[in-house]
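DM from R.C. (forwarded with permission)

"hey, sorry to bug you on a friday — could you get me a structure for this? deadline for the figure draft is monday and I only need the backbone to look sensible"
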Amino acid sequence: MTKYFRLVRLPNLIFLAAIQILIYFAVIQPIMQIHGFESAQQNSTYFWLLVAASVLICAGGYVLNDYFDVKIDSINKPDKLMITNVISKKSAMFIYQILSGAGLIAGLILAVLLKSFTLGFIFIVTVGLLWFYSASYKRQFIIGNLIVAFLSAISVLSVGILKMAILQKIFGNLIFETHIPPMTYLYVGGFAVFAFLTTWLREIIKDIEDEPGDREMECHTMAIKWGITRTKIFIYMLIILIIIALFVCAKLISFQGTLTFRYILIGIIIPLLVLAYMIFSAKEKKEFHQAATFAKVIMLVGILYSLIFYFEIAKMFKIPFFDLFFVK
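My reply, with the result:
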């Protein structure tokens, strides 16, 4: 069983589910509360179906990625090579078909139940993009990184789309005449943009880490086309862009006190500067791997701001924090 957990990247699947849970219960739930919708448990079955579909499709994507990357992985990480060493290519393709098929069916059932064309389109496009990414796009200049970053953002944004579909099912188009949709998409969209930028950052770092195997297989990643030095410069620029965006967000979020600013500064901006130094000093594969892991930690800390967001909303609007207690 352990080998299958390794094949589908179980920790990453837990990470994905955790992100969607935080967005639903710590971002969307307080927005619903201040508009008079008290319980996050209402219609939560739809949410868990979304999580199941997302996790299954993502798991299938990991299997498919390994299926197409056998030769590259035999160079970049021979000690972690699963397909051919532990599982046959035929078995891997079968597992991919089961996981992706089950995820797509779950997603389409959800879309039909909520009469949401958008959700159905998202699941179909996600499965298609994962196939073309693994088969071809990941070896192309920039586009592979952008696809992964886009899918990361969609996994966040889909939670907001789901909630709006649920409300539309109950209240019809009248819901779009309220402040709920724009407020929901504003905050969920902010987390989605953060997920996009940090995922793009991490993917570029991973390309530098995997440069030897990618070059052997004639890939056209940024690290190969531009070289390590120019790619590092692009990473610094991306980090600066993220920091500027975070400062703007901290300025625009109008909560009392400095808790939000301090969290963003200490929890995200300073670690991003540390990451920039790690990239600057990195020369060996192991050092770039550590930088990529650290970038994922930064992304997690950024998503965990959702708990601070709930705390701030609960304090401002005098609503119970996770239906447990009132914040004074």
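R.C.: lifesaver. The first strand starts at residue 320 and ends at 321.
me: no worries. Residues 271 and 297 are 9 Å apart (CA to CA).
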